[in-house]
Amino acid sequence: MKACHHCHTTIDSLMSIGTPTLCPHCSKPLHSCYNCRFYSPGAYHDCLEGVDEVIEEKMEANFCDSFMLGDDEQHENKKRAEAKARAEAFFNI
Hints:
Number of helices: 1
Number of domains: 1
Shape: globular
Strand content: under 5%
Structural class: mainly alpha
Radius of gyration: 16 Å
Order of helices and strands: H
C-alpha cells in the first residue's frame, strides 16, 4: 500500500507526485527519500538505484529523477503483527 512515511496516510497510486507535492494529511513532502521505494539505509548514498548525488536531508523534498513512491512496509508489518497477536490471544483463551 502506498502511504506517507510520516503519518501513514494512504496515497492514491495514480496521484502525480512532484517535488512540491505535500501529504494531504500531515503536509510533509511526499517527494523525499523516506517516501521512495529505493530508499535503503546503508546502501550507497542510502539508495538502491545507485544515484550519483548525495541527498543530505532525506526527509525534505528533492529533485531525484529515480523517485518512486514506496510502500509503507514497516507500518504494514507492525499492523499485521498486532492483528496476529490479537487473533492468537482470542483463540488461546
